[in-house]
């Protein structure tokens, strides 16, 4: 079949006839650009609800992301009201141009069938009912994705504990006398902990007891070796013994072994637990930090450490980003910097794909861009694997999604 100067080749008898007819209609009046061609593709996905037949067929290389998305929607027989916007990747690279441009840029061979992976594009939840107004700016947020408990550090020095699904505040505490710039949470032996870093140059550790709307926050201890505002926190849960990492405005990083003792005591009447009746003397946990001295200290960067990505439980490699235009790879077991990436711009935050098969980093920057880095590239590289974004506004923070195909989320300041 020839359509507007090119042939649509059906490579398998299973290819639906109605798709060929639809494709002929869509492209009947299109004109080919000079040098355009067809590419044989096979679509695959990790999302069962959007899976189509694994049947190779030829598509014009002039298709871009929107065109590919239209193809998938049609093969799924989705109506206009049910249309889903998809993202696509080839060889672990997002497709953000015409297929012809992408294949040429990354030297992808078209002699064989090209495997195109697709997944739903992530958007912002439009449900504004799941929001809460706070009296002060929010300096940092961290969420336990298993329990759904979140922690928000504010510029008035308070920390709000909230339920992530409803955003209801379940507890609060006056943590610092100055703005809270960093929050990190973790669980150990069934107990929820979190740490806060502030412009008052201290790191404080907290324990959470209770459940649901009856949660109580208890101060565990204060770590006070920093001489500048604490800007970032991370937790390395090595061998069930957490190592708390803190970075400050001067570029220093401290590592703290946080061993805690726990006992029970009566809850005071002035407890900050929400919906707690005055005079209720229910037993709550009381914690104390057994050692407040750092395990190590390092001059990690020349300027502020904006983010710390701690290793997973069975690894020892972590990452930091900084205002000094660099991202660094660390062996935290040896406190040794093993690689440096020159970002060319201030890096406001960093996150990583948590998979040994995908050692990729994503960073946010003051020029409105997100940059993706291959952590296997040799030290000194200033070439990001991919640059995303057209905004000229400051990108304050970036996080990687939970799906097997990671999706970057960004927050504009």
Descriptive account of the structure:
- By secondary structure, the protein is mainly beta.
- 7% of the residues lie in helices and 45% in strands.
- The chain has 3 helices and 31 strands.
- The chain has helices at residues 17-27, 65-75, 99-105; strands at 2-3, 6-7, 38-44, 57-60, 86-90, 93-94, 114-120, 138-144, 149-154, 158-163, 169-174, 180-188, 191-198, 203-211, 214-223, 230-238, 241-248, 252-257, 260-266, 283-289, 296-299, 305-309, 317-322, 326-331, 336-342, 347-352, 360-365, 370-374, 386-388, 395-400, 408-412.
- The strands form 9 sheets. It has a 5-stranded mixed β-sheet with strand order 4-3-7-5-6, covered by helices on one side. A 4-stranded antiparallel β-sheet has the order 8-9-10-11, with no helix packed on it.
- β24 and β25 form a beta hairpin.
- The chain is globular and about 65 Å long.
- Mean pLDDT is 80; it is low at 1-15, 24-35, 265-284 and 404-413.
